[in-house]
Protein backbone atom coordinates (compact mmCIF):
# COMPACT_ATOMS: atom_id res chain seq x y z
CA UNK A 1 0.00 0.00 0.00
CA UNK A 2 1.54 3.31 -1.06
CA UNK A 3 -1.30 5.83 -0.62
CA UNK A 4 -2.29 5.84 -4.29
CA UNK A 5 -5.12 3.28 -4.10
CA UNK A 6 -8.05 4.38 -6.25
CA UNK A 7 -6.02 7.12 -7.90
CA UNK A 8 -5.06 5.16 -11.01
CA UNK A 9 -7.12 7.29 -13.43
CA UNK A 10 -5.57 10.61 -12.41
CA UNK A 11 -2.07 9.08 -12.47
CA UNK A 12 -2.67 7.76 -16.00
CA UNK A 13 -4.05 11.12 -17.10
CA UNK A 14 -1.07 13.09 -15.81
CA UNK A 15 1.76 10.63 -16.41
CA UNK A 16 0.63 9.33 -19.82
CA UNK A 17 -2.16 11.23 -21.54
CA UNK A 18 -1.06 14.76 -20.63
CA UNK A 19 2.31 14.68 -22.35
CA UNK A 20 0.88 13.10 -25.50
CA UNK A 21 -1.74 15.87 -25.63
CA UNK A 22 0.79 18.66 -25.09
CA UNK A 23 3.64 17.42 -27.27
CA UNK A 24 2.14 18.56 -30.61
CA UNK A 25 1.87 22.10 -29.22
CA UNK A 26 5.18 22.31 -27.34
CA UNK A 27 7.53 23.57 -30.05
CA UNK A 28 9.94 25.83 -28.19
CA UNK A 29 10.14 28.41 -30.97
CA UNK A 30 6.50 29.46 -30.51
CA UNK A 31 7.28 30.47 -26.93
CA UNK A 32 10.18 32.75 -27.86
CA UNK A 33 9.57 36.20 -26.41
CA UNK A 34 10.68 39.57 -27.68
CA UNK A 35 10.45 41.45 -24.39
CA UNK A 36 12.19 44.77 -23.79
CA UNK A 37 12.48 47.53 -21.18
CA UNK A 38 12.62 51.31 -21.45
CA UNK A 39 13.90 53.92 -19.04
CA UNK A 40 10.34 55.03 -18.23
CA UNK A 41 9.54 51.41 -17.32
CA UNK A 42 12.36 51.39 -14.78
CA UNK A 43 11.18 54.69 -13.30
CA UNK A 44 7.66 53.36 -12.95
CA UNK A 45 8.91 50.24 -11.19
CA UNK A 46 10.79 52.40 -8.68
CA UNK A 47 7.89 54.77 -8.12
CA UNK A 48 4.78 52.61 -8.25
CA UNK A 49 6.24 49.13 -7.84
CA UNK A 50 4.96 47.72 -11.14
CA UNK A 51 5.34 48.23 -14.89
CA UNK A 52 4.74 46.54 -18.25
CA UNK A 53 7.55 45.23 -20.42
CA UNK A 54 7.55 45.96 -24.13
CA UNK A 55 6.87 43.07 -26.51
CA UNK A 56 4.89 39.86 -26.17
CA UNK A 57 5.35 36.66 -24.15
CA UNK A 58 4.91 34.32 -27.13
CA UNK A 59 3.72 34.05 -30.70
CA UNK A 60 -0.02 34.44 -31.20
CA UNK A 61 -2.15 31.66 -29.66
CA UNK A 62 0.89 29.64 -28.51
CA UNK A 63 -0.60 28.95 -25.08
CA UNK A 64 -4.23 28.46 -26.07
CA UNK A 65 -3.97 24.82 -27.25
CA UNK A 66 -2.17 23.94 -24.00
CA UNK A 67 -4.90 25.47 -21.86
CA UNK A 68 -7.51 23.68 -24.01
CA UNK A 69 -5.70 20.34 -23.69
CA UNK A 70 -5.43 20.49 -19.90
CA UNK A 71 -9.11 21.42 -19.67
CA UNK A 72 -10.12 18.44 -21.83
CA UNK A 73 -8.21 16.16 -19.46
CA UNK A 74 -9.85 17.70 -16.41
CA UNK A 75 -6.57 19.14 -15.15
CA UNK A 76 -5.93 22.65 -13.79
CA UNK A 77 -4.17 25.13 -16.10
CA UNK A 78 -0.94 24.79 -14.11
CA UNK A 79 -0.21 21.66 -16.16
CA UNK A 80 0.45 23.75 -19.27
CA UNK A 81 3.98 24.01 -17.83
CA UNK A 82 4.52 20.32 -18.54
CA UNK A 83 5.16 21.39 -22.15
CA UNK A 84 8.70 22.34 -23.15
CA UNK A 85 9.47 26.03 -23.48
CA UNK A 86 6.46 27.38 -21.64
CA UNK A 87 8.58 29.30 -19.12
CA UNK A 88 10.57 30.88 -21.91
CA UNK A 89 8.71 34.13 -21.27
CA UNK A 90 10.22 34.31 -17.79
CA UNK A 91 13.73 33.62 -19.09
CA UNK A 92 13.21 36.36 -21.70
CA UNK A 93 11.99 38.73 -18.98
CA UNK A 94 15.15 38.08 -16.97
CA UNK A 95 17.23 39.05 -20.02
CA UNK A 96 15.14 42.16 -20.70
CA UNK A 97 15.43 43.24 -17.05
CA UNK A 98 19.24 43.23 -17.11
CA UNK A 99 19.29 47.06 -16.71
CA UNK A 100 17.45 46.55 -13.38
CA UNK A 101 19.53 43.63 -12.10
CA UNK A 102 20.94 40.18 -12.79
CA UNK A 103 17.88 37.96 -12.32
CA UNK A 104 17.33 34.21 -12.49
CA UNK A 105 14.19 32.10 -12.50
CA UNK A 106 12.79 30.64 -9.30
CA UNK A 107 10.75 27.47 -9.12
CA UNK A 108 7.64 29.54 -8.49
CA UNK A 109 5.03 29.60 -11.26
CA UNK A 110 1.30 29.20 -11.85
CA UNK A 111 -1.33 29.40 -14.57
CA UNK A 112 -4.84 30.79 -14.23
CA UNK A 113 -8.15 30.47 -16.02
CA UNK A 114 -10.79 32.73 -14.48
CA UNK A 115 -14.24 31.91 -15.82
CA UNK A 116 -16.91 34.56 -16.42
CA UNK A 117 -18.68 35.31 -13.15
CA UNK A 118 -15.73 34.23 -10.97
CA UNK A 119 -12.63 36.06 -9.76
CA UNK A 120 -8.87 35.75 -9.30
CA UNK A 121 -6.89 35.25 -6.09
CA UNK A 122 -7.62 37.66 -3.19
CA UNK A 123 -5.28 40.49 -2.08
CA UNK A 124 -1.78 39.34 -1.15
CA UNK A 125 1.88 40.21 -1.53
CA UNK A 126 4.45 38.02 -3.22
CA UNK A 127 6.58 38.62 -0.12
CA UNK A 128 5.50 40.31 3.09
CA UNK A 129 8.45 39.29 5.23
CA UNK A 130 11.16 41.68 4.00
CA UNK A 131 11.20 45.10 2.39
CA UNK A 132 12.97 45.07 -0.97
CA UNK A 133 14.80 47.82 -2.83
CA UNK A 134 12.50 49.81 -5.08
CA UNK A 135 15.08 50.26 -7.84
CA UNK A 136 16.33 46.66 -7.75
CA UNK A 137 13.82 44.41 -5.95
CA UNK A 138 15.18 41.11 -4.72
CA UNK A 139 12.05 39.36 -6.03
CA UNK A 140 10.02 40.28 -9.11
CA UNK A 141 6.69 38.66 -9.92
CA UNK A 142 5.78 38.22 -13.60
CA UNK A 143 2.21 38.04 -14.93
CA UNK A 144 1.58 37.34 -18.60
CA UNK A 145 -1.83 37.68 -20.22
CA UNK A 146 -2.92 34.81 -22.47
CA UNK A 147 -5.53 36.75 -24.40
CA UNK A 148 -6.79 40.19 -23.34
CA UNK A 149 -7.11 40.91 -19.62
CA UNK A 150 -9.47 43.87 -19.39
CA UNK A 151 -11.18 45.19 -16.26
CA UNK A 152 -14.29 43.26 -17.32
CA UNK A 153 -12.18 40.14 -17.78
CA UNK A 154 -10.51 39.92 -14.36
CA UNK A 155 -7.41 42.05 -14.90
CA UNK A 156 -4.96 42.50 -12.05
CA UNK A 157 -5.39 45.22 -9.43
CA UNK A 158 -2.72 46.74 -7.22
CA UNK A 159 -1.95 49.54 -4.78
CA UNK A 160 1.07 51.57 -5.93
CA UNK A 161 3.86 51.49 -3.35
CA UNK A 162 3.75 55.27 -3.01
CA UNK A 163 0.07 55.06 -2.04
CA UNK A 164 0.17 51.97 0.16
CA UNK A 165 -0.13 53.09 3.82
CA UNK A 166 1.31 49.73 4.95
CA UNK A 167 4.44 49.92 2.84
CA UNK A 168 7.18 49.50 3.96
CA UNK A 169 6.59 49.00 7.69
CA UNK A 170 3.45 46.84 7.90
CA UNK A 171 3.60 44.50 4.93
CA UNK A 172 1.48 41.88 6.66
CA UNK A 173 -1.44 44.29 6.62
CA UNK A 174 -3.47 43.81 3.43
CA UNK A 175 -5.92 46.68 3.91
CA UNK A 176 -5.90 49.29 1.15
CA UNK A 177 -7.61 52.65 0.62
CA UNK A 178 -10.14 52.23 -2.16
CA UNK A 179 -9.08 55.49 -3.80
CA UNK A 180 -5.55 54.14 -4.27
CA UNK A 181 -6.50 50.92 -6.05
CA UNK A 182 -5.24 50.77 -9.63
CA UNK A 183 -6.65 48.53 -12.37
CA UNK A 184 -3.89 47.03 -14.54
CA UNK A 185 -5.49 45.82 -17.79
CA UNK A 186 -3.28 44.12 -20.36
CA UNK A 187 -3.52 43.38 -24.04
CA UNK A 188 -3.04 39.89 -25.43
CA UNK A 189 0.37 38.46 -24.46
CA UNK A 190 1.56 41.56 -22.62
CA UNK A 191 3.71 41.05 -19.51
CA UNK A 192 3.19 42.89 -16.24
CA UNK A 193 5.85 42.69 -13.55
CA UNK A 194 6.08 44.02 -10.03
CA UNK A 195 8.12 44.28 -6.85
CA UNK A 196 7.08 41.29 -4.71
CA UNK A 197 6.20 43.72 -1.87
CA UNK A 198 3.31 45.07 -3.98
CA UNK A 199 -0.22 44.47 -2.70
CA UNK A 200 -2.11 42.94 -5.63
CA UNK A 201 -5.00 40.64 -6.54
CA UNK A 202 -7.00 39.24 -9.42
CA UNK A 203 -10.18 41.11 -10.19
CA UNK A 204 -13.69 39.79 -10.84
CA UNK A 205 -14.73 38.63 -14.28
CA UNK A 206 -18.08 39.85 -15.53
CA UNK A 207 -20.61 37.15 -16.32
CA UNK A 208 -20.78 38.88 -19.73
CA UNK A 209 -17.02 38.98 -20.37
CA UNK A 210 -17.34 36.58 -23.29
CA UNK A 211 -14.77 34.02 -22.16
CA UNK A 212 -12.23 33.09 -19.50
CA UNK A 213 -9.24 35.19 -18.53
CA UNK A 214 -6.06 33.17 -18.90
CA UNK A 215 -2.64 34.06 -17.52
CA UNK A 216 0.78 32.57 -16.79
CA UNK A 217 2.98 33.71 -13.91
CA UNK A 218 6.54 33.25 -12.66
CA UNK A 219 9.01 34.80 -10.21
CA UNK A 220 12.55 36.13 -10.70
CA UNK A 221 15.19 36.51 -7.98
CA UNK A 222 18.43 38.46 -7.98
CA UNK A 223 21.21 36.02 -8.73
CA UNK A 224 22.73 34.71 -5.51
CA UNK A 225 20.04 36.21 -3.26
CA UNK A 226 17.81 34.09 -1.02
CA UNK A 227 19.73 30.85 -1.66
CA UNK A 228 17.18 28.89 0.37
CA UNK A 229 14.67 29.34 -2.48
CA UNK A 230 14.78 26.68 -5.19
CA UNK A 231 15.79 27.77 -8.70
CA UNK A 232 13.93 26.42 -11.74
CA UNK A 233 16.09 23.82 -13.45
CA UNK A 234 13.55 21.44 -15.04
CA UNK A 235 14.50 20.43 -18.58
CA UNK A 236 12.92 16.97 -19.12
CA UNK A 237 9.22 16.04 -19.03
CA UNK A 238 9.76 14.18 -15.73
CA UNK A 239 11.48 17.17 -14.17
CA UNK A 240 8.73 19.51 -15.32
CA UNK A 241 6.03 17.28 -13.79
CA UNK A 242 8.01 17.10 -10.55
CA UNK A 243 8.25 20.91 -10.46
CA UNK A 244 4.49 21.18 -11.03
CA UNK A 245 3.87 18.78 -8.15
CA UNK A 246 5.97 20.93 -5.83
CA UNK A 247 3.98 24.03 -6.84
CA UNK A 248 0.73 22.26 -6.00
CA UNK A 249 2.01 21.48 -2.51
CA UNK A 250 2.93 25.16 -2.05
CA UNK A 251 -0.26 26.78 -3.34
CA UNK A 252 -3.02 24.16 -3.32
CA UNK A 253 -6.11 25.29 -5.27
CA UNK A 254 -6.53 21.84 -6.88
CA UNK A 255 -8.82 18.82 -6.53
CA UNK A 256 -7.97 16.28 -3.80
CA UNK A 257 -6.93 13.56 -6.25
CA UNK A 258 -4.49 15.92 -7.96
CA UNK A 259 -3.03 16.94 -4.61
CA UNK A 260 -2.64 13.23 -3.83
CA UNK A 261 -0.72 12.78 -7.09
CA UNK A 262 1.50 15.74 -6.13
CA UNK A 263 2.19 14.35 -2.65
CA UNK A 264 3.10 10.94 -4.04
CA UNK A 265 5.29 12.46 -6.77
CA UNK A 266 7.21 14.70 -4.37
CA UNK A 267 7.55 11.90 -1.84
CA UNK A 268 8.84 9.49 -4.49
CA UNK A 269 11.38 12.06 -5.60
CA UNK A 270 12.64 12.43 -2.06
CA UNK A 271 12.96 8.69 -1.65
CA UNK A 272 14.85 8.34 -4.92
CA UNK A 273 17.01 11.37 -4.13
Strand-and-helix sequence, N→C?
HHEHHEEEEEEEEHH
CATH architecture: Sandwich
Strand content: 15-25%
What is the gyration radius calculated from CA atoms? 18 Å
CATH class: Mainly Beta
DSSP, total strands: 9
Structural class call reads alpha+beta
Any idea what the CATH superfamily is called? q2cbj1_9rhob like domain
Number of helical runs?
Answer: 6
Largest sheet: 5 strands, antiparallel
Number of domains: 1
Mean of residue pLDDT values: 94
Tertiary shape: globular
Helix content: 25-40%
Q: Which strand order spans the largest sheet, edge to edge or round the barrel?
A: 1-7-4-9-2
Give structural notes.
The protein has one domain: Jelly Rolls (Sandwich). 27% of the residues lie in helices and 19% in strands. The chain contains 6 helices and 9 strands, in the order H-H-E-H-H-E-E-E-E-E-E-E-E-H-H. Strands 1-7-4-9-2 form a 5-stranded antiparallel beta sheet. The radius of gyration is 18 Å and the shape is globular. The two termini are 21 Å apart. The relative contact order is 0.20. The mean pLDDT is 94.
